[in-house]
Amino acid sequence: MTKRVVFNQKGGVGKTTIVCNLAAIAAAEGLRTLVIDLDTQGNATQYLLGARATQVDRSIGDFFESTLSFSLAPAPFVTYVSGTPFENLDLVASDPRLEELAIKLEAKQKIYKFRDALRKLKGYDAIFIDTPPTLNFYSRAALIAADSVLIPFDCDEFARQALYTLLANIEEIRADHNEELRVEGIIVNQFQARSKQPQRIVDELRAEGKPVLAQMLSSSVKVKESHELHKPLINLDRSHRVTQEYLSLYQALQHG
To answer: pLDDT, tens digit, for every residue of 29-49?
Structure first.
């Protein structure tokens, strides 16, 4: 079972879109796949469930709340899983209570509970974890639990400077809490091939030895349509250019 977290401390870089589309491709390829939405905004939950997002029986908030009290027989993590309309693709939905729960979880030092729960989880081939755009309790818990981290990156100078800090933070978590964690790659998102600046930044990052993946994702209104219809690109239009970019990225990750 692979456990990937998609994380960047900068918002608006496409974390949720990347999580849901890579997960949907894994599911379409026949892998039993789980998305876990740790972002209080709940965008991954909305993306995959649409109007059903408010109808889930249990959420990630229920899981974390349960860890605040000791139990000899805690409910297994699968208890918090909901189905989606897509075959082989399940979801642990976000919860607006996450923000208020974080203070209590920090105080009781529950940072390893998420990792422990995923280690006991059976029946899935791939897990993709969506995170908030900040290094908080939940993103740290995800990095401690994951095998690898994917970093979405939009090509501007501010994002580049933030990337150096982000990589240092990930390395600190790896050294202190999860020696198995590796940066699987930096995903260039919303790439504009006709503009010189993005390509220059990508080239410079590669020259510095940063793990920028060769497969880049371009901008398209099809992505916004996908959000609006609550359908990942592979389920909406397999032949579309951006869908093909995601397929290429997925295959590179699987064989990387």
So the answer is: 999 999 999 999 999 999 999
Beta strands, E only, 122-192: 126-130, 148-153, 182-188
- pTM of the prediction? 0.96
Give the separation between CA 66 and CA 71, rounded to whole angstroms: 9
Longest Cα separation, the chain:
59
> Which burial class, exposed, middle or buried, applies to 196 when counting CB atoms under 10 A from its CB (0-12, 13-18, 19+)?
exposed
In 3D space, the residue among 113, 119, 121, 116 whose CA is nearest the CA of residue 68 turns out to be 113
CA distance 63 to 45: 16
Q: What is the pLDDT of residues 43-71, one digit of tens each?
A: 999 999 999 999 999 999 999 999 999 88
**Cβ burial 85-123 (10 Å sphere, 16+ → b, else e):** ebebbbbbbbbeebeebbeebeeeebbebbbebbeeeee
- Taking phi over 0 as left and psi of -120 to 50 as alpha, with beta for the rest, 123 belongs to left
Instruction: Write the pLDDT tens digit of every residue in 121-174.
Output: 999 999 999 999 999 999 999 999 999 999 999 888 888 889 999 999 999 999
The residue with tokens 């940072």 is 111
3-class state of residue 42 by DSSP:
coil
Q: 187 with 217: CB under 8 angstroms?
A: yes
